[in-house]
Specification:
A 6-stranded mixed beta sheet has the order 1-3-2-4-7-8, sandwiched between helices. Strands 10-12-13-15-14 form a 5-stranded mixed beta sheet. The chain is elongated, with a radius of gyration of 35 Å. Helices cover 43% and strands 22% of the residues. By secondary structure, it is of the alpha/beta class.
């Protein structure tokens, strides 16, 4: 009977409704083990058991498979019940442990229970064995369920804390980007005007061009901050993800270098998603560059797509996703991998493990914002020395893929003689906009906030053709002011401008229908062209 067997006494036939029970028996007597198994058979069990009688045998049995209960004799040659109990406790398995003995003192029984045994049964009273096993298995299951619930609660609380932290950082990032974009609008606009005034051979042009270049780089950083904060204006349309990956493949190969093997595994049946094309391309680029940096000595980068159904069972591992159909974009590398500490801070802006000057810490934060803005989710699997896989889940849409919008024609920028009410609380931006519009022939009246804009409009006797207004201002915001103005001047058109979208004019970066918008920071030529487009629109 030694070893793992599916054992029962030959004289007994198993009950028709026999229940399986995995029993680890620590006993040096084959006869005593036989008696234990016969009691279990009579109670309707079909025990799968293994008998051990040394520490090494028990250690191996605990490691080899899972058990439902451990039944141990109190005393064996070179081995005993207390040692068996310590081995079980050391294994980390929460199993019922029942001591069985022929003769033992009351003090020993109490000591064994204090040490962690769940029950102590005399061999002459084996009728207590089955009730004790059933009671302790039920309690073990209750403990396991409670532990799982506590772990799930801890995981949910950790996810909530992380989400709250990222949301707080997002609000801060959006506010910084908004204020910074006002400054960049003035820097970009004045450097642009300065360049127009300088002759091509003027030595000062190089300085002005450098200012314009630096302002452009800074504007790119603020766009990433706004993307992370989900405040960037986007133009979502239905995309075929396989085509997007295919169109970026050539550029990806140039970016990652020749020492990294690049391959794609695209599911031909992969569905469509609704997203901003430029942003999805940016996500792919950012993740590919991140993978490249994780493989300094070369390796393999794989980009794949697949359809996935998230049901209630899958949500246990992906609780942030609602049930439904998703398209998954996976980017996997064979690089150095990440520690749990790095993973905990992965999507925080400006967090980077790269050397100074080698990264801004905004790449993955930008990916996080883009996927969130698409109502998606990012799953990260990584281990030190075993590489990293990012899985991006996008809700699948049933509509056909939409063709890209044709690029806007570079029509000459013309001015006009219309009247524009300019409402902007930042004096440096307001001054630049006034100069730009008056330079092109417009009549400009100005105000520093929404309330002042309403007062100025009420006092102005002539027609106001356009209101050019910031969105976020003290006293009264741009949208509230525009809505109030339409009551008295319904024919007046409105062009909003801001460092980021507010819920008043858009939701998750998507502008409300009928909203005309100019993103800060803008160039003076962009302002002039946009004003003309809105005025000419019927």
């Amino acid at each position: 009977m030694d070893g793992t067997t599916n054992s029962r006494p030959q004289s007994e036939a198993p009950a028709r409704s026999a229940r399986s029970l995995r029993v680890l028996i620590a006993d040096d007597s084959d006869n005593d083990a036989f008696l234990l198994l016969r009691v279990l058979h009579k109670a309707g069990y079909k025990p799968v058991h293994e008998r051990v009688w040394s520490a090494s045998m028990m250690q191996a049995a605990l490691e080899r498979q899972d058990w439902d209960v451990v039944i141990s004799d109190y005393e064996m040659p070179g081995f005993g019940g207390f040692e068996a109990l310590r081995l079980l406790q050391g294994s980390g398995k929460d199993l019922p442990f029942i001591l069985v003995s022929a003769v033992v003192s009351e003090e020993t029984a109490v000591a064994s229970m204090k040490a962690g045994a769940h029950d102590y049964i005399m061999k002459r009273k084996l009728a207590r064995l089955v009730p004790a096993i059933e009671r302790e298995i039920l309690e073990a299951q209750t403990r396991a369920a409670r532990k799982a619930a506590e772990e799930a609660l801890r995981h949910s609380e950790e996810q909530l804390r992380q989400a709250q932290k990222l949301e707080a950082v997002a609000r801060l990032a959006a506010g910084v980007a908004h204020d910074f974009n006002n400054v960049l609008t003035a820097i970009s606009g004045h450097s642009e005007m300065l360049l127009r005034q300088l002759e091509s051979g003027d030595s000062r042009r190089k300085n002005a061009e450098q200012i314009e270049k630096c302002a452009s780089l800074a504007a790119a950083l603020t766009r990433q901050l706004l993307t992370f904060s989900r405040k960037q204006v986007i133009e979502p349309r239905v995309l075929e993800l396989n085509s997007v990956v295919g169109n970026t493949e050539r550029m990806l190969r140039r970016l990652i270098g020749e020492d990294i093997e690049f391959q794609t595994e695209l599911d031909p049946a992969a569905g469509h998603i609704k997203a901003d094309l430029g942003q999805i391309e940016q996500v792919i680029m950012n993740l590919a560059l991140n993978a490249r940096d994780a493989m300094p000595n070369g390796g393999r980068l794989t980009v794949s797509t697949a359809n996935v159904t998230i049901d209630e069972a899958r949500r246990k591992s992906l609780p942030d996703l609602s049930p439904g159909e998703y398209v998954v974009l996976a980017v996997a590398d064979g690089g150095i991998g990440m520690t749990e500490q790095v993973k905990a801070h992965l999507f925080e802006p400006f967090y980077t493990t790269k050397p100074a000057g080698k990264g801004t810490g905004l790449g993955l934060a930008t990916c996080f914002g883009i996927v969130k803005q698409c109502s998606g989710y990012i799953e990260v699997r990584s281990a030190v020395g075993k590489g990293t896989t990012f899985k991006l889940y996008f809700p699948q849409v049933r509509e056909a893929a939409e063709p890209a919008a044709p690029p806007s024609s570079a029509t000459p920028i013309v001015g006009g003689t219309e009247t524009v009410l300019l409402v902007e609380d930042e004096a440096m931006v307001r001054e630049l906009a006034v100069m730009t519009l008056r330079e092109r022939g417009y009549i400009v009246i100005e105000a520093a906030n929404g309330a002042e804009g309403l007062r100025v409009a009420g006092q102005y006797q002539g027609k106001i053709d356009l209101v050019l207004t910031d969105v976020v201002m003290p006293v009264m915001g741009g949208k509230e002011k525009a809505d109030a103005l339409r009551g008295s001047r319904p024919e007046t058109k409105v062009l909003f401008t801001s460092g980021y979208t507010e819920d008043a004019i858009g939701h998750h970066g998507i502008l409300l229908p009928g909203i005309e918008f100019l993103q800060k920071p803008y160039l003076t030529v962009s302002l002039a062209r946009r004003v003309r487009e809105v005025l000419d629109r019927s």
